[in-house]
Amino acid sequence: MSYPTWIDRLPSAHKPMPLLSFPSASLMGVSVYCLTHDAAWQTEGIVRIASETDAAAAVTMMDLSVEAEAFGCPLHTSEDEVPTVTGAIVTDEDEADELIIPNVGDARTGLYIEAARNAKARITDRPVLAGVIGPFSLAGRLMDVTEALANCICDPDFVHAVMKKTTPFLIEYAKAYKAAGLDGIVMAEPLSGLLSPALEAGFAAPYVKEMIDALQDEHFAVIYHNCGPNTPKMTDSLASLGAAAYHFGDAVDLAELLDLMPTDRPVLGNISPAGQFLGGTPESMTEAVNALLHRCADKPNFLLSSGCDIPPASSWDNIRAFFKASQDFYAGH
Question: Pick from 39, 70, 112, 298: most CB atoms within 10 A?
Answer without folding.
Answer: 112
